[in-house]
Give the backbone structure.
Amino acid sequence: MPKIEIPAWTEGSGGANALFGEGNGPYAEVSVGDVAGLDQFGVRLERLPPGSRSSYRHWHETEDEFVFVLSGEVMLVEDTETLLRAGEAAGWRAGAPVAHCLENRSAEDATILVVGTRARSGAVHYLDHDLVLHHDETGRRFVRPDGSPVEPKD
């Protein structure tokens, strides 16, 4: 396999979300695994400016997830909080109900390597928002944990 040319970062605003309400703050990312043509697992670089977070706290039923801090520092938010600095990592097995996200509470950007399974179908639980995202070949849909439909907030 030849050297992979890393494409330009994609910037995101992380603004308010119709289902979740508050936003995650600005971020930048690049899907390195897509460039390499990987289809068994995803590999992404993510840059979080101060005050941003990686996602809403969540856990995956069918996908492993791993993060490695390349530069800066982030707070790993689970039921407790753990500071992760450059060179430190965390990971979650598929099906382990440990909701997590990363928050940049520092004054500098943080860059994280994110690796995860690319399951064709599965569910992602967002405990703080009482939501479950189901994804499969038919698409993506949010429901409540009891399976009832979700209406976007106005």
